Amino acid sequence: MSLILTFLGATSTHRIKIAVTAAKLLSGQGKRVLLAGNVEPTMSMLLNFSVGCDPQEIAINLHVVYLQASVLLERSWNDIKQLESEYLKTPLLKEVYGQELAVLPGMDSALALNAIRQYDESGNYDVIIYCGYGDSRTIRMFGMPDFISWYWRRFHQLFVNSDIGKILTEAPIIQTLINNLFNFNWMDNNFVHPIDQTISFLEKGKEAVADPKRVVAFLVSTPEILELAACRYLWGSSQQINLTVGGLILVTSGNMDAKNMIPGEFSPLAVSVFPDRSTSDWQILMDSLPDFEAQALEAPKPIEINVCERKVSLFLPGFEKKQIKLTQHGPEVTVEAGDQRRNISLPSSLIGRSVTGAKFQHNYLIISF
């Protein structure tokens, strides 16, 4: 399994430069590194190398790849057609080709996440550095396994319990029609298998994002007040998807004592200073980077559950109490902060209990049951 590392912040040039520097540093330490980006042409210019859509080795232990959405879509579409041909005697999509398909809004993030999953499962890399948009789109991308699995659990059960669901799953005549029309057995276990496999992927993705040893983000900012505010917002939004933020990397020019310029709202994050220097000074840039893995383990946990005290504590920096909305519908407890909405999975001992109180204290939303 790989450590998946990404960077969040308002200025793409700084983020990409830090991602490239991190790739050089970690590969120089003997780790097998894949630098994967979907932001061009900055990465190619910094590397002085034309990055392609397949991993290419540009130095010892260092590979780079461009996650081009149209290419990823074409490859994924071919996989779908192959899967369809295995389960349907008369495939429906055989006349539709990947080269014809347009990339819908949001699809590029899903394709990039799936590519990262595949590279992770290949076992070829110790570290995968994702150099993406670095804003709410990246956060939503890493939150996809949780979002999609929730939609699947919720709407699948609603469909099964609905009248039409009962008709489709119980009525022999409907099953017969489907078997004759599509040449497969509606109730056949082999047909359900790809769905089960997808659910397994989603659960593994959720576990990885919640594990600071597997996925971690670092904030990147200058001392400029607007950039710092954007980073605080991204920090809080990351907690909503259970993504650990390991620290803040402050890009500065000159010899200013940048750490003393950081407001207390970023406590207890560790702050590193990254000099805004030419890429001819790669060694100086590498020496300024933090220990990513160590800081990830020391960072505040996005969620803590105390079963004995019947309390759930959510770490939500960057938000005020008036920006947070808490609702409960049956077994689901939903927390809305900014443009992120989180459905909390409660342990069995708390399922069925109603929320008895909630308070916002020291950047934590503390929910009592």
TrEMBL record:
CDD domains: ArsA. Its EC number is 3.6.3.16. SUPFAM superfamilies: P-loop containing nucleoside triphosphate hydrolases. It holds the Pfam family ArsA_ATPase. Residues 20-242 form the ArsA/GET3 Anion-transporting ATPase-like domain. Keywords: Hydrolase. The keyword Hydrolase applies. InterPro entries: ArsA/GET3_ATPase-like (IPR025723), ArsA_ATPase-like (IPR053262), ArsA_HSP20-like (IPR040612), HSP20-like_chaperone (IPR008978), P-loop_NTPase (IPR027417). Coiled coil: none annotated. Residues 311-369 form the ArsA HSP20-like domain. It comes from the Bacteria. GO terms for molecular function: hydrolase activity. Belongs to the arsA ATPase family. This is Arsenical pump-driving ATPase.
